[in-house]
Fold this protein.
Amino acid sequence: MTSPFPQSYPSTRLRRLRQSAWVRNLSSENHLTPDDLIWSMVVHDGDEPTIPVGSMPGLFRLNVDEAAKAARRASDLGIPAIAIFPHINPERKDDAGSEALNPDGLVPTVIKAMKDAAPDVGIICDVALDPFTAHGHDGVIDADGYVLNDQTVDLLRRQAVMQAEAGADIVAPSDMMDGRVGAIRDALESAGKVNTMIMSYAAKYASGFYGPYRDAIGSASALKGDKKTYQQNPANSDEALREVAMDIDEGADLVMVKPGLPYLDIIRRVSDTFAVPTIAFQVSGEYAQIKAAGERGWIDEERVMMETLLCFKRAGACGVITYFAEAAAQILNE
Ligand code: PBG
């Protein structure tokens, strides 16, 4: 290749480092590996092995046996952890979300089955009441439908201890009540669960991107109103830093930002500001968008999936909770 320009121009050619795969790989600033993936998995308490979720093509609610098998696959693929989200029979829901505290309920049963099947895979449990409440909110509500902070925190600490006692490695409060991380840490210490980690949904926004998830866990039709009185305003970024600082102060071991892609700026600020592992959650609506456009042939689904996962790493996340974990790990293992 000869250049029409004088020898001296341009001496810096950034395209030199892009000319072939080996040098692109060598000069890559970030890498995605199966170690970065947390498998977001929906489980159900029925008999059917798998039930498709309409708004999330390719995603199935798994029964306990299938969830245990999936845990084995996670282990084989090198996926370090699974985050469990329960879909329970609506007849078991009530206004207080009592089923959340049942030590023989779906979540503790799944934890034990997964731990038996794949003891080397970390288990992460959402701490929140929404899969269990008849009204679909993350806590208990008053007559006006307002979610009561302190009463909810009291239930969450019991839910977290129950999950830890069933074998959860990480409890992940996703409710956005004030003071819940500290209360849960205290409760875990009192219960002797000193090594149970807390991954707080520290900066969790009131987002439209959770729509398909609420369908997946069966809280969509139940939910009255929205969650704007407890989840964060999408307009705010400084507030996320306050949330994260408080959660770390209260004892969070890892912090999470959620949703993922529209909030990469928050991931960057959080990971730059705090020396704490920062996790991104690529939520249900993000998954659904990629799937829907991919199905129509408008985007290359696999390519966009891998690109988005890498973008979380570039933004500063050390791991990503994603419904794509199995598919992405398969590609990375090829
Ligand atoms: C609820 C919870 C939500 C998600 C995880 N935990 C939804 C919500 O806050 O309404 C969303 C997950 C997703 O959209 O994939 N505590």
